């Protein structure tokens, strides 16, 4: 089992910054954290970028789908993919969250809170053991941002985490913003939380921005790190020693230069904030710690079933959620009900822009909401769920199902392998007599749908409307044995005459070969 090296200050590697990172080396960041799932099912451009980044920087893997707290057994196909990525990438470490994402094979794609009970702890210790044995390394688990307290809790969050770290012999990814958020939402003392965590178990620290909603705070990752969070971070570093630290910024992502300035704020925080006393007037530190509650309470599997059905069906919770004076049980659960729907909704909107335009915003939004309410995800990642929306439109007999199908196909293009495409120079080097025997195929980054050509270049997908001759010409080249047979087909379908067939095909190649759409099925 490996130990955790000290790497310094890092950032989350986000596609908006790929060019900055690749074109400016060194870029001012010591290491990068990736979201594992974003690179598990692709061998396209994202993987190429990651390979280049890895060649210059240490990289760590941070997952969101391990669901270590779920009552379900470990999803072995998921774990296998995770290990395959790790074997290829050789990350400095692998992390996930102290949470569950679903039960009975349903995936909410959200990080849900676990009950802090002995049964839940024992189950999680066992699963961490399985995962660490399979991966052959210690993993880091992150403390969650917590919006809901189970009435059945018999342990404080930090006591639960402390025991988990010791009994499972794993490490902690300490998210300081999550501690601040959780403590505000549950009226706890963040300093007590930090004090309780053993320094030797902290492998990495997360910092991020949040949103204040009056009686609760949401961990949104969409803004600058709050000053209080930064002060809490400085306190943590002063009392626990310097730890690997990175910033998460996942929506409304700013320019890379802003991320670097934010990282400077973090580096300078220890000078700016001397030890701060965070104790709150009404700390209910002991109130949550009640081992006597263990009697006559539902099992943690029942709790998860209750939670999941309330989130999926938008129901009010029963007395299994702890009601608070200023943050009711229904409000606590509503944070998860809202987040579940918003995450799926936003992901679908992003992948179907043209279908949405054709359908009209309001009608389309109703269709998405209907899909979400009727179709819980059973996938480890979001992509297949988003693609399933196209099939849903087909079953709804939507007149725009065809466009949705095309857009689902387009999003798949981004994950296709990058292959070496044929250039005009390569063709020019051929003996003219051999040209008719040349065999070309449309590459994996290219799709023809109707009279439209879609070509993926890096993460962008370009479209071009084709004439009948262009469409048939590209299909012929792709489907026939060689260029000679493609010519014959165009002639037979009366798209050109015998005398101008060769010219027509040459024009076609001159126009489309430079777009990088053709590959040779055998070695050039
Ligand atoms: Fe985090």
- Strand segment tally: 15
In CATH, the topology of the largest domain is named TIM Barrel
CATH C-level category of the largest domain: Alpha Beta
Separate helix tally: 22
Please state the overall shape, judged from the principal axes of the Cα atoms: elongated
Structure notes:
- The protein has 524 residues and is α/β, with parallel strands linked by helices.
- The chain folds into three domains: 9-272, TIM Barrel, CATH 3.20.20; 352-416, no CATH class; 424-519, Outer Surface Protein A, domain 3.
- The chain contains 22 helices and 15 strands.
- The chain has an eight-stranded parallel β-barrel with strand order 1-2-3-4-5-6-7-10. Strands 12-13-14 form a three-stranded antiparallel sheet, with helices on one face. A two-stranded antiparallel ribbon has the order 8-9.
- Helix 13 (329-351) crosses helix 15 (361-374).
- It binds fe (ii) ion (FE2).
What secondary-structure arrangement, pairings included, does this model have?
Layout: E1 9-12, H1 18-23, E2 31-35, H2 37-40, H3 45-56, E3 59-62, H4 76-89, E4 94-97, H5 118-135, E5 140-142, H6 157-168, E6 171-175, H7 176-185, H8 190-196, E7 202-208, E8 211-212, E9 217-218, H9 227-240, E10 245-248, H10 256-267, H11 269-272, H12 300-313, H13 329-351, H14 353-359, H15 361-374, H16 382-395, H17 401-413, H18 424-428, H19 432-435, E11 441-442, E12 446-449, E13 452-457, E14 460-465, H20 468-479, H21 483-492, H22 501-512, E15 518-519
Parallel strand pairs: 1-2, 1-10, 2-3, 3-4, 4-5, 5-6, 6-7, 7-10
Antiparallel strand pairs: 8-9, 11-15, 12-13, 13-14
Helix pairs in contact: 5-6, 8-9, 12-13, 13-15, 13-16, 14-15, 16-17, 20-21
Fe (ii) ion (FE2) binds at residues 142, 175, 178, 206, 248.
């Amino acid at each position: 089992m490996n130990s955790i090296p000290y790497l310094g200050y890092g950032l989350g590697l986000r596609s908006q910054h790929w060019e900055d990172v690749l074109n400016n080396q060194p870029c001012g960041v010591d290491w990068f954290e990736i979201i594992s799932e974003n690179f598990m099912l692709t061998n396209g451009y994202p993987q190429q970028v990651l390979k280049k980044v890895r060649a210059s920087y240490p990289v760590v893997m941070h997952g969101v789908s391990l669901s270590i707290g779920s009552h379900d057994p470990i999803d072995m196909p998921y774990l296998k993919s995770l290990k395959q990525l790790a074997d290829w990438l050789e990350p400095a470490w692998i992390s996930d969250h102290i949470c569950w994402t679903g039960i009975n094979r349903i995936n909410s794609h959200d990080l849900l809170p676990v009950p802090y009970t002995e049964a839940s702890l024992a189950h999680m210790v066992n699963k961490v053991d399985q995962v660490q044995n399979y991966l052959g390394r210690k993993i880091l688990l992150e403390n969650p941002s917590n919006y809901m307290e189970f009435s059945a809790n018999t342990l404080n969050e930090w006591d639960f985490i402390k025991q988990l770290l010791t009994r499972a012999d794993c490490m902690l990814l300490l998210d300081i913003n999550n501690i601040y958020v959780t403590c505000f939402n549950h009226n706890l003392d963040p300093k007590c939380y930090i004090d309780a965590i053993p320094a030797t178990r902290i492998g990495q620290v997360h910092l991020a921005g949040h949103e204040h909603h009056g009686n609760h705070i949401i961990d949104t990752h969409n803004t600058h790190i709050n000053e209080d969070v930064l002060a809490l971070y400085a306190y943590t570093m002063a009392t626990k020693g310097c730890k690997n630290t990175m910033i998460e910024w996942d929506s409304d992502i700013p320019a890379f230069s802003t991320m670097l300035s934010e990282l400077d704020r973090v580096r300078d925080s220890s000078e700016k904030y001397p030890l701060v006393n965070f104790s709150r007037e009404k700390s209910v530190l002991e109130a949550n710690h009640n081992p006597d509650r263990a009697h006559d309470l539902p099992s943690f599997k029942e709790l998860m079933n209750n939670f999941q059905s309330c989130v999926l069906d938008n129901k009010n919770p029963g007395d299994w959620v702890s009601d608070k004076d200023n943050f009711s049980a229904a409000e606590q659960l509503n944070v998860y009900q809202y987040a579940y729907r918003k995450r799926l909704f936003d992901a679908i909107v992003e992948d179907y822009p043209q279908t949405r335009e054709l359908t009209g915003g309001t009608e389309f939004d109703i269709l998405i909401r209907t899909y979400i309410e009727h179709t819980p995800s059973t996938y480890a990642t979001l992509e297949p769920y988003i693609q399933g929306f196209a099939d849903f439109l087909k079953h709804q007999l939507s007149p725009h199902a065809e466009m949705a199908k095309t857009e689902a196909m387009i999003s798949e293009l981004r994950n296709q392998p990058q292959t070496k495409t044929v250039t005009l120079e390569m063709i020019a080097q051929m003996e003219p007599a051999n040209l008719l025997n040349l065999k070309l195929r449309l590459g994996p980054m290219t799709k023809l749908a109707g009279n439209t050509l879609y070509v993926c270049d890096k993460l962008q997908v370009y479209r071009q409307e084709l004439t009948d001759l262009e469409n048939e010409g590209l299909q012929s080249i792709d489907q026939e044995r060689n260029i000679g047979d493609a010519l014959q087909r165009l002639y037979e379908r009366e798209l050109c005459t015998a005398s101008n067939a060769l010219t027509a095909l040459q024009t076609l190649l001159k126009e489309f070969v430079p777009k990088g759409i053709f590959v040779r099925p055998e070695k050039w």
